[in-house]
Amino acid sequence: MKKAICAILAAIILLAAHAQVVFADQSITVVTNGGRKTYSPGYIMAVAGRVTNDGEATRNADVFLEIYPAGSPNSIKYYAGTKSNESGYYMTVFTVPSDFSDGDYTIAAHTAEASAESDFSMPSDAPKEVAFLGSDPEGVTETPTEVIPVSTNALALAFQGNVNYFINNKDMPGVVIGANENNEDCISLYKGEDNTPVSFDVELIDDLAAGSATISYYDLSETQLQTQRQCCLVLSLNEQLEENTLYAVKIDGDLCANNGSKLGEDITVYFKTGDSTTSTSTPGGTSGGSLLPAAIPASDLGKTVQNGNITTLQVDTEKASAILKKADMSALVVDISEIAAAGAQKAGRFPAAVVDLAIAEHKPIVLQDSEIIMYIPPEALTKGKEMTFSVMLASDETVQNAPGDTERKAVYIFSASSGVTELHNFQQAVMMTLPIPEDVSAPDKLGVYCLNEENNQWEYMGGRVRDGKLVFSARHFSTFMVAESRKTFADIASHWAKRDIEIMAARQIVSGVGSDEFAPDTKISRAQFAALICRTLNLADNAAADLFNDVPATAWYADDVLKAAKAGLVVGADGKFRPDDMITRQEMAAMIQRAYNYAGGQAPELKEITFSDKRSIDAWAYEAVRTVYSLGIINGRTDGSFGAADNATRAEGAVMLKNMMDKLGL
Q1: Domain range holding 372?
Q2: Does the pTM of the predicted model rise above 0.90?
Q3: Residue 437 exposed, middle or buried by CB count within 10 Å (0-12, 13-18, 19+)
């Protein structure tokens, strides 16, 4: 319940932007959640409002709340005392007790100088306005007979009623009071007969536009229906599902809807996974990708041709076209695992007619070789040409050693051809998923390197671990190596940021000041941090025209500063950027907020800043600090302060950027 209080309070603070009423004297308002203002015992009620004086926020005002039967102010049924925050807002949440009888009630809010009232009723026949409707993928309340893909990374539970956020359309039409975080604690997920807990996050929304979006689900009769997103709780799984395993989602009866009404009964929904070939998922994305159709065995899609050490599936035009034309098939997923032994060179050859149809239908072609997945978007296909894609696990003797400070774990050779011409480059990146080698000690330090065949050197490509797999994308095919970074620095051995610095070094974002030092506590300049942001977001090389008169064209940082300026990530005053000035923590927060927005990050549910020195944050930076604080990208210091005007260190910059990458799924 404490989480619900914090979430609702944070959202209410935002109402200052929507209510610009000026009062001659101190004034107070009071509202509750629920569109009809009717409640029953056990319902959750949020009571909130604002204290102002001559239109200005009255902070730290004592607010007293009373609830009593209408017309009987001496028969108080509920009492609470609280204070207004720095923006003048106050809030309290409580569960309506069972001794509230039928009838009308008054909510009175008082300060020393002002008072306000609201009302609600306790009807004898208050309808139950929340009920479980179904799920996606299909789940049942008894032992399941159908299976869901083992690659499933999210579950949606559909309900009758808004279960994501509170809103009172009568008193504040169109304004969200706050997220219904009560419901986060009402969902549990277990696996197997021993009910082992499974880690997940409930993706609550608190936005009207997102809430009105359409989402599909299956009711308990297995009929596919649609509802609004606000009526669904989405569970984002933090671990890979296991094959052929029974999973149980337990929904507590205390789960409540917008008007505070509760589910009233515990419900268990069961899902069962199939094996690893039941389906696959699209590489990439913060949640591991989107679900693809079940992979089709090679034997059902064509014939196998042997040419030397290459085994090729010759895809049948008619069979593949029939699949691509199906409205419910979002991709052509081909499983070539069984056409040759593991590790051998395998290929899939697609006739020009199939390629053209995939382009026309805007559907990807996906090759799956056990845990290796090659996702080829239609934009990467060549119209009018037969296309062949192949993959092979290379032996240790076929390639040179890994670059310095890395340890080679596996090497793959990917190739493609268009007609009879070998194809190296694609118009759009092809996404690949690889298994994590067994002897890896730190998966978050894994990276993919591409062999530059012109200079015979390895070049870092990126790669991130998602859903227990290594995912990366490339616009050209070559030899790719999976390597684990061993890079560290002598001066971070006992530093608080050691692990994050090593991860960012593995990602080729940060580097040392020498061969063996990082200087974690050294201050970082505005130009240096702008360069780090450019590397983090992999900004294109097309820099803007000269925007700052203190950024020489010959300076090492000129391109990065101008690229960041063109993207709107950095700003200056009076035509100056001050590249050599040490960046402050609030300036760093502002740059990170802009970078997060530029990369398409979702706006967080804003929290109230709790730093002991929050009044020292400049007005221009306050919302940026609040945003990145709410995202968990920045944190305060051990003494509870933020240090807005303090210069940031190299370690702090590395940690904040790493946190941002994790939030964005970069």
Answers
A1: 296-485
A2: no
A3: middle
